[in-house]
Amino acid sequence: MATSPCSSSGVSSSSSSGLGADAGLEIRTRSVEQTLVPLVSQITTLINHKDKPKRSDKTLQAIQRVGQAVNLAVGRFVTVGEAIANENHELKEEMSVACIEARRAGETIAQLTDVASLDHPESDSHITIFTDKTGVVKAARLLLSSVTKVLVLADRIVIKQIITSRNKVLATMEQLEKVSSFQEFVQIFSQFGNEMVEFAHLTGDRQNDLKDEKKKARMAASRAVLEKCTMMLLTASKTCLRHPDCESARINKNGVFHRMRLALEQVIEIVTDSRPNGENEMAPISIYSGIKEFKNKVEGLRENLYFLSKENLSTMLEVILEHTEDFTDSAYTSHEHREHILELSKQAKMELEQLVSVWMQAQNQKTKDLMEDLEVAILKTCQCMNELKREVHSAATSLAADLLKYHTDHMVLKALKITGVEGNLEAVAEYTCKLSEQKEQLVEMCRLLRHVSGTEPLEITCIHAEDTFQVTGPQIISAAETLALHPSSKIAKENLEVFCEAWESQLSDMSMLLREINDVFEGRRGEKRVYLSLPRPGKHNANLKALKPVKLDTEEQAKIAKLGLELHLLTSDVDSETEKWEDQENEIVQHGQGMSSMAYSMYLFTRGEGLLKTTQDLFHQAEIFATEGTKLASALHAFSDQVHGDDKPLLLLEAEKLTSMCKQLQITAKASVQGKSATFTKVDACILKTRNVMTLLCQLLPLCCKLLRKNKAGNGCLKPAPPWREDRIRTGTNARTPERRAETFGIKTLENHVTNMTFLESK
Fold it and tell me: CATH fold of 287-400, please?
C-alpha cells in the first residue's frame, strides 16, 4: 500500500490532542473514514476534558460512560475483524495482531476512565485519566492506529473481491471469443451477463466509496465503457458467428474485446492504485490548470518576493503558451480566434517581462513606489492571463457548438446504413471516408475542450470522449463493410445499428458536457454531476399531487440502478430467446417481445433516459407491462390445450405463476402513495417485480420453444395445433417497431447520458 499521512478529517482533527492514525496507512475510501470519525470524536472528548479542581459526580459518570462505550464498541469491532481474519488466511496474521492491539487499547481506556466509583479519582494510588493523561494519549493513539489498520486490511478484501470478479469476467470472455456455435455462445453469454452484473455492483460500490474525485471519474468512465461494450460484444459476436469467413466482422468483434480488456485493466489499476510496470500516471495538463497555477505564483509575490525564481515563472508561461499552439495550429480554429490568441500570447510575454523587472528591483530595494509598481504589474499580468483563458474557452466551445449542431442530423450514419443494405461497396467506401473526417473533427474538439474543462473530472470526461470517438469510428466502418458484403444479413444490419447508436450517444453526451463546461466557466456549477457512472433515477421522480420531482438520496439511487442493470441484461436474454423462434408471428413471441420492450423502457428510466420522464410514467408503464404479461399467460393456457403428457402440468404451473406475479405488479403500480420515501419504495417495488417477471419469462420462452420443436419432430408432445388467434392487440407501447429491433442488443439512445450517470457518487 502507498504510504502517506492519514487524510481522514476525523483523524486530522485529533492531532491537537496528540492523536493520529498510523502514518503508513492511507485512507482512500469514505467508508473507512466515516467509520473512524465517531471513534475519534469520543476519544477526543476524553483527551480534551477540562482539568477542573472539583469534578461533579455527573462529570465522572460521563467520563466513565464514554470510556466504557469506546471499549464496548472496540470489542464488537474486533469480533468482526477476527471473523474476517478467520475467513481470509492470507491476512489472518496481520489482522489478528491489529485486533489484539485494538482490544488491549480499548481495555486500557476503560480502566483509565473507571473513575465514577472512586472517592479521589485524582489520587496517585489509582492510575486514572486524571493522573496519567499521557497514558490515555498513548492508548488512544494505539487504538486509532490498530482500528485503522483493521479497516484498511478489510478494505483489501474488497479489492480482492473486485480482482476475483474481474478474473472471472476475463475467463468467460476468452471462452466467448473461441465459441463456434450460436447455441454455445448464448449459454456462455448468459453466464457472462451474470458476472458483469456482479462486477458492476462491486465496482459501483467502490466508485461511491472513493475519496479522490479524479479516480472516481476514471472509474466511472471505465465502467461506462464496459456497460456499452457488453451489448456491443453480443451483436459483434453474433455477426462473426453468422459470417465466420468475413474479415471485417472479425475485426469488428476483436475491437470490442480489446476495448473491454483495457477498461477492465483500468478498473483494477484504480482499485489497486497501481500502474503496469510501475510507471507513474501522467496527469493531463490543460491550459486552465496551467493558468491557475501561474496566477497563484504571481499573486504569491505580494506575500513573499523570494519564494520562487524568475526562471520558474518564465518556464510556467512557456508551457502555457506551448499548449495554446493546440488552438493556433488547429485547422478548425477560426481565423479571428487564432489572431486573438497569438496577440494575447505576445502580450503575456511582455507583461511578464515588466513584472520580472519590477520584481527584481523590489528584491533589492523595497520602497513604497516599487511595491505599488509591483502591484500594478501583478494585476496586469493576471488580467492578461484571464483574457487568454477567456479566448481559448470561446474558441473551444464555439467550435464544439458548431460541430455538434452540424452533425446532429447523423446524415453520414444514415447513408452508411442505406448503402450497406444495398450492398454498394463503392458508396460505403465513400461514406466511410466522410465518417473518418468527422471523427478527426470530433477528436480535435475533445482535445481543445479538455484544455478549458475547468476541473480534473471534466478533463477525464473529455479524454474518455476522445477515446470513444477514436475507437467507435473504425468499428462503425468495419460494421458497415460487413453489411455491404452481406446486405441481406439481419444481424449485420443490427450490428451496424448498435455502433451507430453508440456514436450518436457520445454526440449527445458531448452536448451535456459542453453545457457543464460553460457552467463551470461562468461560475454557475449548480448540482454536482459525476459523468459516466450508472443511471440516476431520482431526476425523474414525482409525487402524486403535482408531479413535483422527488430527489432520492444516493443509497436509494444506487439500489434502483442495480435493479435497472439486471433488468437491462434480462431484456437481452429475452430478445436472444425470441430470436430462436422460427415463427416470429407466434403470439407467445410477440407478447414476449412487447414485454421486453417495455422492461427496457423501465431500465432507461433508471438511467434518467427514454420516454418515461416521471415516476407516474413508470407506474403507468408497469401497469401496461403487467397487462401484457397477463395476455401472455392466457396465450400459454391456450397453448397448453395442445400439450399432453408430463409437459402440460409444468406449462400450466408456469402460466399460473406468471399470472400471480403480474397481478401483484398491477396492485403495486396502482397503489396510492404520498411523500418521497413512499414513492421510492413504490418505484423500487415496481422495478423489482418487473425484474422477477422477466426472469420467469426467460425460463418460459425456451420451454415453449422446446415444446414446439418436439411437435415438429413428431414426438407426440403436442396435439394438432389450431390456428393461433388473430386478435393480437399491439399498441404503440409494446409493438416490435423497427426502432426496437435496432435497439434489441445495442446501446440505446442516450439523450441525457452525462447528467443521467451521476448517482453512484457517494454513499
Answer: Four Helix Bundle (Hemerythrin (Met), subunit A) (1.20.120)
From the list 432, 460, 420, 446, the residue with the least C-alpha distance to 507 is 446
CA distances 75 to 28, 31, 71, 403, 580, Å, are: 25, 19, 6, 62, 58
Give CATH superfamily name and number for 555-714.
Alpha-catenin/vinculin-like (1.20.120.230)
Most confident by average pLDDT, 114-123, 195-204, 544-553, 574-583: 195-204
- Which residue type is seen at 579? E
Q: Are 563 and 535 in contact (CB under 8 A)?
A: no
CA atoms within 13 A on the CB side of 110: 14
| The C-alpha cell that represents 544 in the structure block | 402524486
- Cell digits of residue 451: 484544455
- How far, CA to CA in Å, does 668 sit from each of 275, 548, 559, 673, 682? 49, 21, 18, 10, 7
Half-sphere exposure of 441 (CA within 13 A, CB side): 17
pLDDT at 565 exceeding the cut of 80: no
State pLDDT tens for residues 673-693. 887 778 888 888 999 999 999
Q: Answer whether 605's CB lies under 8 Å from 618's CB.
A: yes
Read off the pLDDT of residues 274-308 as tens digits, 9 standing for 90 and up: 765 545 555 557 999 999 999 999 988 888 888 88
Fold of the 30-116+130-156 domain: Four Helix Bundle (Hemerythrin (Met), subunit A) (1.20.120)
Q: What is the DSSP letter of 538?
A: G
